[in-house]
Specification:
Residues 128-234 form the THUMP domain. The chain is α+β, with helices and mostly antiparallel strands and 256 residues long. The chain has one domain (24-58, 75-247): VC0802-like. The protein has helices at residues 3-19, 40-58, 64-70, 76-91, 118-132, 154-169, 190-204, 244-247; strands spanning 31-35, 98-105, 108-113, 143-146, 148-151, 175-183, 209-210, 217-224, 227-234.
């Protein structure tokens, strides 16, 4: 192989690598944990389709009539410049409504999102699947909303939980349970996390009650390597832990 060919192939390789840079996990992300059985690309495709379908229903785009009224007094060139700028912003990675990221565990993907309420979107999906009994996915098994991410430590999990808890536990008494899972991390203690979260819930209102079989609200804590994924999910047990195949009476094929 000539030096010229070697340089060309090397340049082509690095260009390809640069174009496929993976987005890394970070703190304070919202999104969804998606479980599958080895078919990760198919799982991502199904997740994108499903999430976009229901997000379009819950969060429709702003009315074009209103936009037209707003720009009537603007110069046409200014209007076009603004529209081009908005399109560029939407195309950047941080502006994508849904974007898959490796979670750090096999058969478990994280799809970060810009939608305002991942729990609301996931609940709308599982309710529809439950009511209609229709199988929406084949490779995407469980769809668990994530309201925030933090570092995988008991203290950080406790602090992140407090920021979520008040909007769910302040107004009225709730039945709740705490679901803790860990993957590729043996440092964070399950008992310590559950004890701390239970104490913080009682501090908000002492009349909340634990219900391990039919809790109205589930506190989800998923620890994967150096990150923790937190959410407060309604009717998590009622809807088969948000397993889409189990909800529509399909055989549950994974416990992840």
């Amino acid at each position: 192989m000539s030096k010229a060919d070697s340089k060309y192939k090397s340049k082509k390789f690095f260009m390809k690598q640069g174009g496929n840079r993976k987005v890394a996990l970070d703190l304070n992300l919202k999104g969804f944990l998606c479980s599958c059985n080895n078919r990760e690309k198919d799982c991502i495709r199904e997740a994108y389709n499903l999430l976009n379908e229901y997000a379009d229903k819950l969060y429709p785009a702003a009315s074009r009539v209103e936009e037209t009224e707003e720009v009537q007094d603007e110069d046409i060139s200014e209007s076009l410049t603004k529209e081009i700028s908005d399109l560029k912003e939407e195309s950047t990675p941080n502006k994508k409504r849904f974007q898959a990221i490796e979670s750090g565990a096999r058969n478990l993907l994280f799809i970060r999102t810009t939608v305002p309420n991942p729990a609301e979107l996931a609940e709308a999906i599982v309710k529809d699947v439950h009511e209609n009994g229709s199988q929406k996915t084949k490779f995407l098994l469980r769809l668990v909303p994530v309201e925030t991410t933090c570092r995988a430590s008991v203290a950080d999990i406790g602090n992140a939980f407090v920021q979520l808890a008040e909007k769910h536990f302040q107004d009225s008494a709730q039945t709740f349970n705490i679901m803790f899972n860990h993957r590729n991390n043996n440092v964070v203690s399950r008992d310590d996390v559950i004890k701390l979260i239970a104490e913080k819930i009682s501090a908000i209102r002492p009349d909340h009650k634990v219900d391990l079989k039919a809790a109205k609200l589930s506190v989800i804590v998923e620890v994967i390597k150096g990150f923790a994924f937190l959410s407060l999910v309604p009717d998590y047990l009622k809807y088969k832990k948000y397993n889409l195949l189990a909800i529509c009476n399909q055989e549950e094929t994974t416990d992840s």
